[in-house]
Structure formats: structure tokens, C-alpha cells
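Annotated sample (chain length 388).
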Amino acid sequence: MSNPDHPLTGIRVLDLTQIYNGPYATFLMAMAGADVIKVEPPGGEHLRRRNARGGALYPFKMLNPNKRSILLDLKNEEDRDIFLELASTADIIVENFAPGVVDRLGVGYETIKKIKPEIIYASGSGYGQDGPYKGYQAMDIAVQAMSGVMSATGFPDNPPVKAGVALCDFFAGIHLFGGVMTALVKKERTGKGSYVDVSMQEAVFPSFASNLGLIFDTDVKKIPERVGNFHGGLSIAPYGVYPCKDGYVSIICNNDTHWHRLLDAMDMPEAKKDPKFLTMADRVKNLDDLTNLITDWSSSFARSEIMASLNDARVPCGMVKDLGEVIEDENLHARGMIRWINDEEGQKSLATASPLHIDGVNSVNYQAAPEIDANRDEILRELRANKH
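Output written by the structure step:
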């Protein structure tokens, strides 16, 4: 699966995770060369079973390539013993059950560290392994609500809106990966294992940096309202999404230089002297007039024309793409993040790589996500060989 050029070659990971949060963390490990053994319950990981209702087969395939699968019923003593034997050969264990579940199953950190004191054991959850919320049921939309994401998303006169993607799951998965890698460095320096605890709520909190500015950096110190597509802290303008002939574009001017470049691209140099738009504070204060000015201009052009013009002018911008356009995106394909393949059934599918590009490190050879229990025999053979 890997070669010595891969950063995590020789690292064995037992993957007890499910859905998105944990599987994305272990996906990043697998794509860095780790031997990731996906330990699945009877019937398979939950995301496999969800496909009975449609729409989950691809997400499972997307997050579980380059892993091996073994089915173990951890409520069964014989299977639990096999897991504990595997744990003695592992460097890392990752799980994202509700707090307390792995302890009740007899495979929690306190049990494992008696078998292998230097183990790195990582737990992902909605709200953490302690604290007043630890018993709350947590899925992405629930954490979006509890974390404040939904209160900050949408327009002021409309109800809160969830983000269009499972951002709490994936933010937490990235932090779970980072926590494990940090613990791995500690282990290499000290020889000591670690317990890593990552909550979805905490992982997403730093993303409110701009919004929190309205509370702590202004005289009003008010709780921010939803601001639609404007800057979350209402401290930058223009910052928004504007209509054009064939869709929408986003434009941001982070300073006066960007603003003057935008006006030159719009062929409106006289607006540089307009007292309503002289400074960033003026532009924020006169946001409606500013929005109308840009909208009147952008509506006359296609997305590609605006992109070409503003990129030439060095103004930050982006066309709003739908997913059909994203999966064909030339930059994602050119950099190897995504590529078209024929899956094991001969159907056209999209393979996803790791977004981590490390100089001098080749990508692992892509291997499709395993079938349930596909690698049981070889994993057990390795376990027997390890005893001798």
C-alpha cells in the first residue's frame, strides 16, 4: 500500500470511526501511507448501511480508499479479544463513537494503554469527552446549531440556515488528524503515548474570528446578526456575491489598493473620490450604495469576463460554481486532487486524493475502499505471524 517515501509508512492505525468526522482523519493517514485497518461492526460501518436510503455509497468510497477492512463484533468476547490483539500491534487507534461507548465495549483508552502504554488513542465527538454537553447526541447539523454556525448563516430577515456542507464534521476531522500527528511527534521525542480528545464544537469555533470582532472590537459590542454574503464582522467592503449574466461572482477588496483596482477594472476611476467610498469605514457605512454600484456593473458581464478582468487587475474574486462545474474543475484535476476513474463495477467515478502536498513525497497508489471484511484473512495471518 505504501513505500518508504510516504510519511506514515510503518504506522498502523485501527480505525473504529464512522460517517465523516473520523473517517476523514483516517483517510488522511491512509493517503500518507499508514496501514489503516477499518474495524467494522456486523453489517458494516454505518455509512454503508445508510446507502439503503440512497446517496451514501459514494461518500463511503470517497473517505475510505487505501484502507483494509475486518468485521469484528466488539460485543462478542472472541472478536473483542482479536481487537485487543490487533491493538498490541497498532500505533494509533481512532474512534468517534459517543463518549463512553468504547469503554462499555471494553476497548477504551484505559484498557488499551495497559496492553500498549505507548499507544496514541484519539476520540472525536460532538462536544468532547467531558463537560456538560458530553452526553448530547451529536451530528453535523446539531453541532452547526449549537456552535453558532447556523445563527451566522443566512440573511437577517430569514430563519437561520445550515451550511450547505458538513463543515463541523470535516473541521473536526482535520483537527483529529492534526491532534494525532502532534501526539505522534511527542511519541517520537519522548516514547510516551497520548490520549487525543477533539470536539466538533471546539474545532469550528475559531472560524468565528471575523464575527467575534463585532463583539470585542466595537463600542456597540452587540451580538452579530446574520449578514448574508457580507463580511461576518461587517468590517470589509466590498465583500459579497454579485449577479452577472450567467450566475454570480464573489468579490472582496481587503484594502484601498484592491478597491482602486476594482474601480479601474470597472472603468469608474471617478468613484475613487466619492466621499461615500473614500475609506473602508465609508464603504462599510454606505454598503447598500456600494452594492448597487457593483451590481449595476457586474450584471452586464458573464462570470468568465469578470474573472478575467479582475484577475488581470489583481482583485480577489471567484465565480460561483455548482457541483457539476466543480467536479470538472481544471485546477483540481491538474493538481491531482480529483481524477476520473472506472470503479470496481466499471462505472465512471471520481477518485479523491489528499489535499496535503508534501515536497518530495509521491502520492500513494489509489486503492478503492474495501468491501466489508475483505481483508480478514490477511489481517489475521499477520496477527498470527506477529505472535511467533
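Annotation: The mean pLDDT is 94.
Annotation: Residues 42 and 73 are 6 Å apart (CA to CA).
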